[in-house]
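Most newcomers find our protein records easier to grasp once they have seen one. To make this concrete, we reproduce a full record directly below:

===
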Amino acid sequence: MASPTPPSEATAAPDVDPAGCLGGDARDARMVLAAQDEAPHTSSGAVEFATSLLRWMHQYPVPAATDVSAVEASVLASDSPYDLSAAYDGGPNTSGALVSDGTPFFLSTVPGVWNLESYGKDRATVTVGAGVVINGELHPTFRMAKTYTLVWEGGHWTFDQASLDRTTEELFSIGTPYTGGC
């Protein structure tokens, strides 16, 4: 009788191609929390969850204080250094100066891309990028990107830290397009 094959270690290849819209097309706390609940313990689950964070974190008007509190309570990793409530005090411009202060914008993954930087059993680093929609119109060239380090804990992907490990231009030159987007 053959002995059972041990489970394989996680690989850097995604199990399915991320669509870029896990959790739905809204940009509120419910979308982030739904994406967190739906994201499997796979590399594509990490990509999808990171994408939901990017879509939620970068918009104007910024998320309501109740949404920020809900996301902060559920998605921050136990050792995360972030204080999301403080980050959104005063309604900051989260566009990185691509959009004028006070101008409504959000991100769309329709022209978006992703790159799995690293993936291990319970940790993933993902760079995700999206197009900027200003006053309801997708800008032809404005793009944003962010690198998220995620930790699998409590049966979900959680947000540990964010950085910009690649330039937006670099990400969009090497990244894999989402299969759908919203």
